Amino acid sequence: HQDQDELQQHLKEVQQVLSRQHLVENLVHRQDMPRHDLVEGLVHKQHLAELRKKLDDLHSADIAYILEALPLDDRLQVWDLVKAERDGDILLEVSDAVRESLIENMGRAELVAAAEQLDADELADLAPDLPNEVLADVFRALPIEEREQLREAMSYPEGSVGALMDFEMVTVREDVALEVVLRYLRLFEELPDHTDQLFVVARDESLRGVLPLNVLLVNDPESEVAALMQVDALTLSPEDEADDAAQAFERYDLVSAPVVDSQGRLIGRVTVNAVLDYIREEAEAEQLAAAGLREEEDIFASVWDSVKNRWQWLAINLVTAFIASRVIGAFEGSIEKLVALAALMPIVAGI
């Protein structure tokens, strides 16, 4: 991720390239020069190559920020330059309104390919915005285990721990030595993000405890997991409120926490990045609500779309304007006698 100044600089550079491209296109069209289509095509390819190179170096979240800051036509042009294997990650990062505009301009095959890049928990976040036929294609293409995970993730309401849960985790048995666990971990190409502990489970998948990685690394390899695991670790239920989980992560400085069902079986985990994303989204929603906006609203949307999204606020403002005019009308006689009172009319209208 970039800091805010670097991010603004990247946005400015992208806008400058797009602006140069529009300028050249206008100049070529206005001048009656031979082979102007060839000239326009060469310049267009040069600008596209410059944009593509810049986008390749940016994180998905930073590209999402740039897409949200561009008008629709420029946004779609930049979106077409993003590598296909990054589509899924970027769709998860952008706001609901921008995601909707991007999905509307993607073909069925493109959407299926983007969705197939995601894990079950990420796909559950994207699923409500996907067309039904695309979701059906993705569902059929998933392995049985991931299909069940997706079905489970989509069953939990927004704002619950289940909605934040992911299924990527490492589990071990309690009756094995640390040396066996270390050999097992070396089989992974990489550990799941934010893995700070391994989950110790029985054969029926019931959670027995957790084994922090620092404990695993500093102890005798011949020691058994059962002798070193922590049995009093905090556990969450998928039905718990996400706000409660966020408070627990803050209170205990957690990086990850296991999620168990009513029978005590391990079904997933919640990580600190999911909690932080939830807190940020809630804070942004509150700020937008205070301004009479919604996350679904695109700042570059048409006037009609903005009116549909904000008609309640517009109606309230219209009613208050009528009330203000009636109040002013009721004191018309006083205003005629003391003209200075007219200076207060804008204040009354603004109440």
Give a verbal description of the structure:
By secondary structure, the chain is mostly helical. It folds into 3 domains: 4-156, Alpha Horseshoe (MgtE N-terminal fold), CATH 1.25.60; 171-286, CBS-domain (Roll), CATH 3.10.580; 303-350. It has 19 helices and 5 strands. The protein has helices spanning 4-30, 36-56, 60-68, 72-81, 87-93, 96-104, 108-116, 120-126, 132-141, 144-154, 161-164, 178-186, 213-218, 225-228, 242-252, 272-290, 303-330, 332-337, 345-350; strands spanning 171-172, 197-201, 207-212, 256-260, 266-271. The strands form 2 sheets. It has a 3-stranded mixed β-sheet. Strands 4-5 form a two-stranded antiparallel sheet. β4 (256-260) and β5 (266-271) form a beta hairpin. α7 (108-116) packs across α9 and α15 (242-252) crosses α16. The longest helix has 28 residues, at 303-330. The two termini are 43 Å apart. The mean pLDDT is 86.
Instruction: Kindly estimate the percentage of residues that lie in beta strands according to DSSP.
Output: 5-15%
Number of helices: 19
Overall mean pLDDT stands at 86
* Overall radius of gyration: 28 Å
Strand order of the largest sheet: 1-2-3
Number of strands: 5
CATH class call of the largest domain: Mainly Alpha
- Which residues sit in consecutive blocks of at least 5 with pLDDT less than 50? none
Shape, per Cα inertia axes? extended
Instruction: Assign the CATH superfamily of the largest domain.
Output: MgtE N-terminal domain-like
Report helical residue fraction: 55-70%
